[in-house]
Amino acid sequence: MEQTREARLMDWMERYSQAILRTCFVYLGRRQEAEDAMQDTFLKAWKAMDSFDAARGASEKTWLMKIAVNVCHDYHRSRWARFVDMSRSLEDLPGRYLRLEPEEETLLMDVMRLPEKQKQVILLYYYHDMTIKEAAEALGVAPSTVYQRLKKAEQTLKIKLTEGSGHENESD
Amino acid sequence: MRMNPIKHVIDKGLSGLQVDSLRMNQILSKAKGGEPVKRKLPLVLVAALVALSIALTAAAATLLWEHYVLEMKQKEKSQGTYVTWPVDDKVALVKNLSEMGYIEESEQVKTLLSQATPEEEKGALADQLMLALTGQKDVREIHSDLITYALLGPEDFWTSAQRVWWTHAINSVRDTSQDPDELVLPLGHEVPEAEAIEIARAAIIQAFEMAPGALDQAQPVADLYTTKTRPDYRRWMVQFKFYKEGTSTWTERVYFTVVDEKGEVIADPDVGTPSLEEMAASYKELEAQKKASKPPIIQAYINYVEQENYAPFWDWSLEAKAAFSREIRPMMAQAEKQGELKQYFTQEGRVIAGGNLSLYTAFAYGLPGPEDIPQDAALEKAKQALVDACGASRQSLEGAASVFVYFDVTDPEKPLWKFFFGPNWVEEMAPGKAYRAQVDARNGEIVLSEALNWKELKGDDLRRF
């Protein structure tokens, strides 16, 4: 039984850890915090694994994201989060961030600076490709609430997100 | 996969954030070993809360709430948030808020508190009153944080003592074992808050070579803290926050530094704060990188993107598309002819620039002339064609969340009006439908009309616009 649980956690981590880590980073703006939040997400998932009932049709991705969002929310509302200067968030990252074009960097920063609730729905709907219904389930709110928050986020970001992007070839 | 720029910028910008197998194994080991034991509320915290309570006697109602919220947080932790509470508990919350003066003693409240009122009605009344207080539309949103912010306003505008209280309130229901620091109340030997703010202000202005008064419009926020590594060393974290216009919670820009208890401006590795000199140097370097020269096509494209306020290409005005087409399309053709296009693409053939220039320059765009039918007339013809030929409803076309319009002059003798109708978010619940139609701008004939599945659209489909 324990072996099965281990395999299941590893499977979840292999499939979702990277996306969850990036989600946590966008949410929290600090690499160390994001890594801690990602770890906490999987520790909580391990603890609550028995309550996850895939047999009843629950989506493990939605379930994990619900945990991740709640973990990030806890981190976010702590005073620690107040010391994050989002304008510096990308500077300490390893890898290729400098290859972002100015307008891309602006968009990423704008997303990171969104009010918390708008950021939640943007991440779930656009980054994790959830439906409004799934995002509502993950956040524990009504689908209409998710819809309203998406509309607000669109206004805040000043772009029409549903209209695609210039990066189709890259995501193909 | 939903097509949007968000996923692209997150994956591209954060591509360095990876989780390797070693990290996964560490997490697995932690999971199998059990989570760290959560700490109980430390005695020093209880003392701090008592001290704080004494300091806040000027605001009796606030004081009451600040006591009450601690209980509420424990209740939320053990029983769940407000929406799950029994009616009696909801009524008790409203009653307390009413007695504290936050909810007016209205007829609604009197009915709520009346023993004659049926329980179901009481629950509904309590929900209504709490929604009104917090400004929410969904009762599931109601929790202690929201109520606190509704009563006290945004945290940045509280006193530093209130933030100490609030941090401890939050920490009373979360694991703080990993927190590197703690907010504390002044003991009296530290440089005072107002002085720390002025010291920080002067230092930031000097380091960033700002004009005097450059921070006058910023909201100063100062918090006194200690860290686990240096528990007896008290420091002020001083931030100067600029908010997005019209908001008091969305921080658009923040300058910050640490002023220690003696009034020295310091770098504090305990809380990841570098020296002001380092921050200023890093900022200048970043600004210089942004201003670094780029290939002419890319720079020209960026100019348009900025001019159009970072909207995606398809949402630009007809005038912008036409100007872009006039300027960039010949540049792209020339670059392609001279074999220079490779400098605009990565090795994988992906576009380096923020947008897909080859896609945007696939067609020539212009503006309608006197011999062309106007946009409104063409749009009407397109809608009618989609209704007749594709079974689109008028309602879905009129309510389309996005309508992209192009005036295609690739063939100057046969200009085309091109329209694309994107789905509304609400339709996300159902299969997402999109439509497109092309109208001959000279004679009004329908050249193309078709229904598309939005979710299946890929770059090549967009190219066909």
Describe the overall structure.
The complex is a heterodimer of chains A (172) and B (465). Chain A is mostly helical and 172 residues long. Chain A is 65% helix and 0% strand. Chain B has 4 domains: 57-153, no CATH class; 180-289; 296-360, no CATH class; 375-463, Nuclear Transport Factor 2, Chain: A (Roll). Helices cover 44% and strands 14% of the residues of chain B. In chain B, the strands form 2 sheets. Chain B has a 5-stranded antiparallel sheet. In chain B, strands 6-7-8-9 form a 4-stranded antiparallel sheet. The longest helix of chain B has 20 residues, at 60-79. Chain B is extended. Chain B starts with a helix and ends with a helix. At the A-B interface, helix 1, helix 2, helix 4, helix 5 and helix 7 of A face helix 1, helix 2, helix 9, strand 4 and helix 11 of B.
Count of alpha and pi helical runs of chain A:
8
β-strand percent of chain B reads: 5-15%
Average pLDDT for all residues of chain B: 80
Q: Name the poorly predicted regions of chain B.
A: 34-60, 346-355, 425-431
Percent in helix of chain A: 55-70%
Q: Biggest β-sheet of chain A: count, sense, barrel?
A: none
Rg of chain A (C-alpha, Å): 16 Å
CATH architecture of chain A: Up-down Bundle
CATH topology of chain A: Butyryl-CoA Dehydrogenase, subunit A, domain 3
Give the N-terminus to C-terminus distance of chain A in angstroms: 39 Å
When the domains of chain B are counted, the total is: 4
